[in-house]
Amino acid sequence: MTSHPGRGLLHLAAAVDLPGTHEVAAVDLPGTHDAAPYLPLARLAEHGVLDFVTLHDTFAVPGPESLAVLSRLAPHTSRVGLVPTVTTTHAGPCHVRAAVATLDRVSRGRAGWRPAVPACDDEAQLFGCGPAIAPRPPQGHPVVVIDATRPQACDVAARHADVALVAASGPARLGDVRDGLRRRAAELGRDPETLRVLAALRIDLSGGECAAQPGHGGGPLPTEDGPLYRGGPVDLADLIADWHRAGAADGFHLTPLDPRRDLERLVNGTVPLLQHRALFRTFYPGSTLREHLGLDRSVSRFAALAGESS
What we know:
By secondary structure, the chain is α/β, with parallel strands linked by helices. It has helices at residues 38-47, 66-73, 93-106, 123-127, 151-160, 171-187, 233-245, 259-276, 289-292, 301-309; strands at 3-4, 8-18, 21-28, 50-58, 63-64, 81-86, 112-115, 143-147, 163-166, 196-204, 228-230, 251-256. The strands form two sheets. It has a nine-stranded mixed barrel, surrounded by six helices. A two-stranded antiparallel ribbon has the order 1-5. The radius of gyration is 18 Å and the shape is globular. The termini are far apart.
């Protein structure tokens, strides 16, 4: 695997699906520069019937590329989606799309990508109309996941995202952002039902079966790194169910403080509780990431234009 100076801090996240909603869990392995330690985590996420895992990537410290890591994991997993963070800082959009399309092919339609939107003011750099240099991938377009917490990213997410991540410490604020994103998507000519909005939370499940941290009503605390939930798997299941019933989001993006410990407790503790309450699926509905998310295979704009002219 190729290692690039100035790139690293890989972070693996996983998404799970509830009826009408989608949940995501993240696991960090700071300083890990090889793909091998991520494979047990990806397989654990797949065992938990989670939608996808994400691998974050930054130029802050040396390390491997998230695309390279997930491409290595693809042949060793069969259903869980694979979503790397991708930047166009050192590669043009055509080459980025070709690399993501390759991941979609080697994973047989399970790829997505998480563009580093804040590093790019020009949307065309991320989503430009340049010529394709790779065959059309199995999903048509791999799933686009965009962090929409910052106001400047909301319009980009409303226009381009299949999945938008929003950091919020309460369901009321989260619901307002979700409504705004869906409203803006409709204004831009999109069907808002094609946009999934996930609550982004950091989680610490070191409490085992203990109750959520006292003093914040069982909900997440705002921190400089984003909302943090601290408690046990049972309380996390209650929080997910409550926010889901409130219609605050289509799911959750959960980032465990200790990936190996917290992902295991999420998959073997929280997920079975949600399944027991008929709030979470027990098997994958299809084989592609778009099918996991309830999204149609995207149609080529060139094919659509050909159909209009015929």
